[in-house]
TrEMBL record:
Keyword Lipid metabolism in record: no
Keywords: ATP-binding, Nucleotide-binding, Transport
Protein source organism: Stenomitos frigidus ULC18
GO CC terms, sorted: membrane protein complex; plasma membrane
Gene Ontology MF annotations: ATP binding; ATP hydrolysis activity; transmembrane transporter activity
Protein name: ABC transporter ATP-binding protein
This protein's record includes keyword Nucleotide-binding: yes
Origin superkingdom: Bacteria
Domain ABC transporter: from-to ranges: 30-251
Length: 252
């Protein structure tokens, strides 16, 4: 189980935040200062991140790249409020999240962050539409409203005609588009993706990247993505390189 799977906490207060489209384009969506992470296992201490500073503006697509073990997932988890750093602070959408309680963090994530995973994480026994509906009801949307919203989200990713298909009858790219539609429930301003194209062939990978690009540029969402996929670099506003837990460079 990845750290992200912990993020869909059973928290059912209604969504109250403003739509992503209302955020000013220049606002800082993510700001990390002096972020460090030490993992303690038995007698050993491992420093996975060292003094990471970064600032990401809203409406941008940022890639988090670097060799295996360099700290990408750890950093994404910290920036998503899933892991608490041992040093430093994180502000998301102008709010300091580092001192929040677990339930405050769960609520913040639910209201503001859409998660996308390499393995799609769809419920195999639910149709494409039901997968989205379920996520909406977890976010506190009433069932009859959720059904309507789920249809509209599915239309946004161009899959209206696949509404009643089970995940096993969809291609990898279609599954990922359902997962993206699900992530858009509740209109999150931040989208955090962990290797979203790793399991996809070139054509499907391209469709997913274009969709994420559209969500950032047309709807002013901030997309932060861990990836090894060099194809995405052309669509990104900047690339953050991590090496041995340290920020090596930001390519704009
Ligand atoms: N819970 C943990 N306990 C101990 N060490 C951990 C823990 N989580 C991660 N690490 C270590 O921290 C380092 C960074 O891990 P991380 O998963 O962030 O790397 P990554 O860049 O995402 O790697 P990959 O590309 O292989 O997914 C690794 O050496 C890893 O073994």
């Amino acid at each position: 189980m990845t750290a992200y799977q912990l993020s869909l906490a059973d928290y059912s207060e209604p969504i109250t935040t403003a739509p992503a489209s209302l955020l000013p384009k220049t606002a800082l969506a993510i700001a990390a200062k002096g972020v460090g992470m030490n993992f303690q296992s038995r007698s050993e201490r491992y420093q996975a991140l060292k003094s990471v500073d970064l600032e990401l503006k809203s409406g941008k697509i940022q890639l988090l790249m670097g060799p295996s073990g360099s700290g990408k997932t750890t950093l994404l988890s910290i920036l998503a409020g899933i892991l608490t750093p041992t040093e430093g602070s994180v502000r998301l959408l102008g709010q300091e999240i580092t001192g929040m309680s677990r339930s405050q963090l769960a609520r913040f994530r639910l209201e503001n962050i859409g998660f996308i995973f390499q393995g799609f994480n769809l419920f195999p026994a639910l149709t494409a539409l039901e997968n989205i509906e379920v996520a909406l009801t977890v976010k506190g949307v009433r069932k009859n409203v959720a059904a309507k919203q789920a249809r509209s989200l599915l239309a946004q990713v161009g899959l209206t005609e696949k509404a009643n298909q089970l995940p096993r009858d969809l291609s990898g790219g279609q599954k990922q588009r359902v997962a993206i539609a699900r992530a858009l429930g509740g209109d999150p301003k931040l989208i955090m993706a962990d290797e979203p194209t790793a399991a996809l062939d070139s054509q499907n990978g391209h469709a997913v990247i274009e969709l994420l690009h559209r969500l950032a540029k047309e709807q002013n969402r901030t997309v932060l993505m861990v990836t090894h996929d060099a194809r995405i670099m052309d669509f990104a506003d900047s690339v953050i390189q991590l090496e041995d837990g340290m920020l090596k460079q930001m390519v704009s």
